[in-house]
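WARN retry 2 of 3 for item q-0093 after timeout on previous attempt; input resubmitted unchanged.
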Amino acid sequence: MKNILVFIFAFFVNTAFTQVSDFKHIDFTKADHIAKLNEDSSLENLPLLVHNLTYKLTTDVEKFRAIYIWVCKNVSGDANQHHKVLQKREKFKKDSLGYIVWNNEYKKIAFKKLLKQKKTMCTGYAYLIKELCFIANIESEIIDGYARSVDCNVEKLESPNHSWNAVKLDNKWYLCDATWSSGYMINGHFFVPDYNDGYFLTDPILFAKNHYPIQKKMVSK
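OK item q-0093 returned
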């Protein structure tokens, strides 16, 4: 297993991903301010939301910043959904096909809750980032894989448990995790909103320490 992890780590880092330092000349104050001004916006009309977040910004990275900040600070982690998914993973531990069937059905319920109540978990965060980027004409992909934490995938990669995004800016791919940027769970039951900028266009070397993609080819060239 150690050799497998080393291989995944090496692939992840050596793939053409770059980091936020590429944009150190960009001041994100305006984008962050616009996101704050729209903090009460609904998810019922995504094109309108994207327009309001981006029309005063000139570069794709600023537009993405406004989208990312808005999602992270206006969508809450769903503790009930988190707990339910953990229960089902345990139930279907030896039946991966059964879990996939259940999960595909549950996603429909989860996405409705996201749009109505602005509550979700990793798949919803990644889905929303991708949809808003699509409307803004910014290329983005959802990456499914393994997240390593103090209580999950510690010794080995046991089961896929996380989703995040890759976004293409200035013809380069960058990594971000809106779920982990938005806040954290306490005992799997309480969501604490606490924005973490460390998962915005993260250094791929750092990102690969606790994010492992399922697929080797994660994004198109």
